[in-house]
């Protein structure tokens, strides 16, 4: 059974994270499937991609259930592939729409941040605890969206912030439940078709703030500090006590 569902419609592709029993946590296999899906969508000149999650939330982030059996090298590679996925989404020529809901953590929040339009259902929450175990993943992109001071306030405490806070700081651009997704997609398609594809590409390049190499370097520096395995285990132990 695939970890993702791809609905290839004539107007857009709808990609659904399909691990509801694991809260759509990002295992190594789901990350590779997502990278391939975005590659295929771009090759097919798909104008728009929506990304959503099946079940109780969009994504609970990095799949911690696989940590114990993996070496430090395995873990570092997994984080690098997640960063590769984030860069792939953020730099895609396809217009990307995140349709989030529920309680979202870590790399799941980073997936939302990588999209062009970020939509969340009422009651959604977000938390990015990576720095609790010394990992810099998606921090710079989050800061480019909400501003450096706001990012520091949220990231240094790994604070949970709700959809109202996310709307106020610009992380979430629209609050809309599943019943409004059709309207959101129609409006996004109208936005995409407002310019010819070549003009959209020119605008994207002119306004591009992505720093793929810098973001990847920051991630690698943090992930390769010896002891990432023990730091994650300590974080998981403290989380259980909290």
From TrEMBL:
One of its GO terms (molecular function) is catalytic activity. Pfam families: ECH_1. Signal peptide: none annotated. InterPro entries: ClpP/crotonase-like_dom_sf, Enoyl-CoA_hydra/iso. GO terms for biological process: fatty acid beta-oxidation. This is Short chain enoyl-CoA hydratase. It comes from Caballeronia calidae.
């Amino acid at each position: 059974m695939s970890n993702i569902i791809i609905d290839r419609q004539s107007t857009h592709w709808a990609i659904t994270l399909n691990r509801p029993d694991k809260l759509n946590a990002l295992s190594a296999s789901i990350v590779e499937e997502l990278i391939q899906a975005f590659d295929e969508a771009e090759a097919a000149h798909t104008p728009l991609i929506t990304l959503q999650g099946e079940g109780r939330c969009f994504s609970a982030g990095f799949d911690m259930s696989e940590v114990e059996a993996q070496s430090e090298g395995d873990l570092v590679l997994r984080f690098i592939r997640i960063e590769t996925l984030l860069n792939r989404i953020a730099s895609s020529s396809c217009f990307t729409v995140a349709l989030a809901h529920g309680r979202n953590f870590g790399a799941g929040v980073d997936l939302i941040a990588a999209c062009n339009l970020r939509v969340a259902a009422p009651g959604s929450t977000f938390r990015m605890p990576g720095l609790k175990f010394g990992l810099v993943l998606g921090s710079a992109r989050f800061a480019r969206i909400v501003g450096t001071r706001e990012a520091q306030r949220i990231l240094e405490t790994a604070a949970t912030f709700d959809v109202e806070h996310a709307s106020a700081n610009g992380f979430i651009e629209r609050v809309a439940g599943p019943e409004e997704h059709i309207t959101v997609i129609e409006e996004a398609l109208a936005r995409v078709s407002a310019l010819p594809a070549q003009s959209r590409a020119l605008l994207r390049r002119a306004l591009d703030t992505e720093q793929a190499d810098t973001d990847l370097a920051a991630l690698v520096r943090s992930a390769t500090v010896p002891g990432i395995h023990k730091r994650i285990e300590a974080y998981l132990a403290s989380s259980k006590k909290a």
